[in-house]
Amino acid sequence: SQRRRDLSGLPKAQLHLHFGPACLRRDTLRFLSASPHFEEQRRLSLIDAVKQAETGEANGQKRYATKYWRRATLLSANDIIAAGFGPAPPPPDASEDTVLKDIKRMDNELHQPGAVGIWDQQWLARQLVASDPVGAETRCLKELYEDAETEGIAWVEICAGMNVKDGHVDATQMALWEVRLSAWAELERQYAGRVGLRFVINCPKTAADAAVLMKFLHAVDRGGAVVGVGQWGREASVTSRREAFAVCRDSGLVAVCVHAGEHALQAACPDGAEIDAARLAAYNGPANVRDAVEVARARRVGHGIEAIKDPLLMACLASTTASTTGGGEGGGAVSC
Length: 336
Prior knowledge:
Pfam families: A_deaminase
Domain Adenosine deaminase: 143-320
Number of helices: 14
Distance between the termini: 48 Å
Mean pLDDT: 84
GO molecular function, one term: deaminase activity
Largest sheet: 6 strands, parallel
Number of strands: 8
Structural class: alpha/beta
Protein name: Adenosine deaminase domain-containing protein
Radius of gyration: 21 Å
Order of helices and strands: EHHHHHHHEEEHEHEHEHHHEH
Helix content: 40-55%
């Protein structure tokens, strides 16, 4: 049999990990589901899911309605972890065949109509976190450091939300960020020299909102926890955020995680959304990757697979410090 190498001791970097639901341990999800706080959250989430489903039906949005009826069913299950997250992942010593079968199962779930699989899982995890946001925040952050050290990951960049609305940072997020930064400072001292973890926030849509966000960060982040901005999720026009990226850059936050050119994933219509084909092509073709480099001055482009369709763009990416797979010391003005 082929000898398997233990890769845990090799130094690694995790450059794009969504904070919260996307990085919670299965044991933590089960812990939250057993919490007395969750029963009230389950009731509220169930009411909202049914309301969303009924609204979808009334508006003729069949996929949207189907999605929320399914999520209501998940919330009603006796064991929501088993219902929503399926079998436990293979153990570290599992055979290659077992691991490949599990990967294929998840891949099949990803592309079924109506956002089955990972999108339902993330939604369900958000309901669990909402039942005890402070407890979930601190536990998740602590476990991230533990897991990084175990897996030989020396540097972690976490994507975390921070929304601005009507000229103000969301009050709930403000409170959670203060908890998050306090826990982060203690963990950084504890893991100094072994694991470094930093945050990347989503770039606001407007320059005014970006200015509000930079002012808030200047007041609360005295330890340098937030190191960059990005754009992720369902891709949007990078050019529409040109001024916002500039405000963030002037405040010392470079673009390190700008998703662009991710057409293959978006074609699956995450969350059951109906995406206009022309809009999809405009936001996810090679031009979208070029905008990420030229407009946002991205040091790293998330995904970027559509760049392969443009040989000149590929040559430009190869000649700059911008990358679709790794970091660099770029970020200056680049023209592709």
